[in-house]
Structures are given as C-alpha cells and as structure tokens.
Amino acid sequence: AGLGAALERVIRLDHDGELRRWEAQVSHLVEVIQGLPGVRAERVLDRTGHIPLARVSSDRIEPGVIAEQLRKGEPRIEVGVTGEGLTVNPHTLTPGDERAIARRLREILR
How far, in Å, CA of 67 to CA of 96, rounded? Predict the structure, then answer.
C-alpha cells in the first residue's frame, strides 16, 4: 500500500512546476548572497545534472564552520559541505525556506 501511494504521488507531481520552484529558490539565494565581500554564490547542478543547487563559498570562513553555524542557529538549517563550498539543495525545501536560509547566510557571512 505504501509503495503504491508513493508511486501515485510521483506520477501526479508537476515536475515542470517543481523545477521552476527550485530554480526560483536557487536564484533567490544566489542573488541575496553574491554581493557580500569575499563571498561567491553560484547556481550549479547536482551530480545527476537535473537539480539546481546554490553553492556558496567564502574567502574568510571555511564551509564546515558556516554549516555548523547554520545547524546551531534558529531556524536549524542543514546544508551540504564540499571542498568547493556549501550547497543548498532546493529538493528538500518548502516554498519560502530559501528566504530564511538567505537571511541566516547573510548574518553569518557579513
């Protein structure tokens, strides 16, 4: 029953609409963060090449330190950490989450 319900949900999803929402969320994050001194924000694709991600790096703060501050803050935010920076995956966000993430990143990266 659970598998059937999950499959039915996937079939009913508006995949184009979800992709548009993810692109808008990533664009918002990049636009809000990229103007900060010593900070680089860019849109990249996940390893499947299908999901846009926001990648953020700082000349002053290591990605792991930023991620830890996000995790300990309010609201608690989990991000991916790579050698190139941290990544925000919109696949797990609800509409509006990108605003809270952008606000917290600006607080940390100022």
Answer: 20
